[in-house]
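Milestone M4 deliverable, item 7.
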Amino acid sequence: MLINFPYIKRDSPVHRLDPRAKLILLFAYGFSVAQTSNFWVIFTGFIISVFYYSQAHLKWRETRRVWLFIIALNVMLIGVNYILSGGAVVTGVDLSHPHVLFTMPFIGFKRQAPFLGPSPLVFSVESVTFMITQGLRNFSIAFLAVPIPYTTDPSHLGAAFKGMGLPDKFAYAVDLSFRFLPTVARDFNTTLDAQRARGFEIDKLRGGIFGKIARLAPMVVPVVIGSVVGAEDIISAMELRCFGVGKRTWFIELHARQIDRIIITLSLASFFIITLFNILGYIFPTGPLHILHTQGIPHFLAP
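Output delivered:
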């Protein structure tokens, strides 16, 4: 509730991009890096995404909560995945003879009851490189995704999805979704100020987790009821305008510039090239076409 993505009106290279170029870049990059665990390919994409994010001119204080959430989620996912797999899940690498750095006593899964028991947690060059690759992949996608709501006028998102060939219902549903969270966050803050004015001290709640949830009822109930009422008003307005009966027109028309066409072309071309290399890599297990199926560890780390 306290993490939202408000649009920040600013003149930056990313702000001036067509929303369709931003969305296609994000989707093409996400589907591309999902096909490989090669460190150098992911690292190259990470550098490009960092440069792209820097052109949005977003400040830390404006995105701090979002990035703290992303960092915590990323660390948790990578850490839990490593612990559950015991460091033994590395795509495209033979772990029969790993370059072990050190081991830690830990608890692992067993094939027989009680299914848990002492097991060393192995840290090898291969497993650590894979963890770093996962982190770079997740953060690079975040660097492309975070600027979209912050640099795109919410009123342009529906027209952008419609311009990408999606149906009116889907485009308008996405448009409403991006508008919903900031609206709920605004209502939450308004309700919070009103309850504080009545003496409700939300920062001093005591008791267990269930006790705190019960005492948050003065906050949750008004926000939920207000959201339901607002949704019903939107539904009524759409029914009065016969939404969904026939083809709709959009008040906002997007016009792609030359830079937008270049980004869209490069994004789609890169996706098709990586997909082709991925398919051919299964056919030719050796050679340059197999690069996406190797980990790409520098030779001085794993001679």
